[in-house]
């Protein structure tokens, strides 16, 4: 799959780079290769749930994580399920402003991943 490139505003780049620069963001993205709730992500990477929710919000705002739907938790509450939207991101600092390109995850890859990990 090729890297997708689109015109990005300085604000887009700043949002993405800021989200990636926060503590635990990379760990959340790594753990969210398959659909997971905030609680599961928090437990997987051993961070407080409040911190996990803040990072999730930043990653969703930056377009790096998406809410794939809702499911019932063990306590019977409806919870959002998240998955990362990309597999790779490359940052280029050679210009006056950082530029990035990303390798997006396809629906086909998500379905295959889900089938292999059921």
UniProtKB/TrEMBL annotation:
User: Where do the record's region annotations for Disordered lie?
Assistant: 93-118
Spans of biased composition, class Basic and acidic residues?
A: 104-118
**CDD domains found in the cross-reference section:** HTH_ARSR
Question: Domain of life of the organism in this record?
Answer: Archaea
Query: What protein does this entry describe?
Result: Helix-turn-helix domain-containing protein
Source species of the chain: Natronorubrum sediminis
């Amino acid at each position: 799959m090729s890297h997708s490139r689109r015109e990005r505003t300085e604000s887009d780049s700043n949002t993405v780079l800021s989200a990636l620069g926060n503590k635990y963001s990379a760990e959340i993205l790594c753990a969210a290769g398959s659909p997971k709730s905030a609680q599961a992500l928090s437990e997987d990477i051993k961070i407080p749930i409040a911190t996990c929710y803040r990072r999730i919000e930043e990653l969703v705002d930056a377009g790096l994580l998406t809410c794939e739907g809702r499911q019932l938790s063990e306590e019977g509450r409806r919870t959002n399920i998240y998955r990362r939207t990309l597999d790779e991101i490359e940052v280029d600092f050679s210009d006056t402003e950082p530029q990035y390109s990303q390798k997006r995850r396809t629906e086909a890859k998500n379905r295959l991943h889900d089938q292999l990990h059921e």
